[in-house]
Amino acid sequence: MLEIRNLHVNYGNVEALHGINLSVQKGEIVTILGANGAGKSTTLNAICGLVKATKGEILFNGEPLHTQRAHTIVSKGIAQSPEGRRVFSTLTVAENMMLGAFTIKDKALISKNEDWIYDLFPRLAERRDQLAGTLSGGEQQMLAIGRALMANPRILLLDEPSLGLAPILVKSIFDTVRTINSHGVTVVLVEQNARAALKLANRGYVMEVGNIVLEDKAASLLNNPDIQKAYLGGG
Ligand code: ATP
Questions:
Q1: Where along the sequence do coiled-coil regions lie (predicted)?
Q2: Residues 6+ apart with CB under 8 A from 190
Q3: pTM of the model
Q4: Quick one: which of 6, 99, 151, 190 is 20 to 30 A from 115 by CA?
């Protein structure tokens, strides 16, 4: 469904991705693990057109994405919930949600998605008229995911959805990602919480300083002694 081939990305003179290859099949949850600065966010941003490939290609169902603008990529079915949530704090929950639907003209579809998302996140439904800036961290994370889902994506890119959340909310966010996936949305998940991410995912990629150094089934990565030592707190 999504195929990244030999992708290079530069920030000025500095190369952040050194030719990565990654693929995602329809229906999968794929996680990308790696230390700070490994290039995980850059990879997600390249997929959704927020940073440009300097070399290589990104294909979605065989069609090039790396030559497209960000809003076109959203309309093709790829939406991101960015790191740090980035909700519009002076707008209400409902207004933030509507912004996520900017590529969709079909009002009935917008309203159907909205109902589904408020079902997924009842707390957002209760707070739909509240300013997003007054939500708790966990609620803002729900809103960022909900807003991305309003674009009706076939692939949802999640950048650190559990960052800064209390353990009970982390579990709830991961459970919700599973539910979203069970509704047919393919998921690419970047996470520092490697153990939880690998328990949820079908496959995982491990990044180190701009390269993919390992790719395997999530269950195999969980049992890999090197991964346990580096990313799972010793197993
Ligand atoms: P983190 O978990 O800390 O976000 P990451 O794996 O997502 O890490 P990236 O944010 O993709 O890593 O960063 C990869 C490299 O690119 C880092 O060396 C980072 O400093 C650099 N980088 C990222 N964004 C920019 C930018 N806008 N300008 C210059 N360099 C950048």
A1: none
A2: 31, 32, 40, 41, 43, 44, 83, 157, 158, 159, 160
A3: 0.94
A4: 190
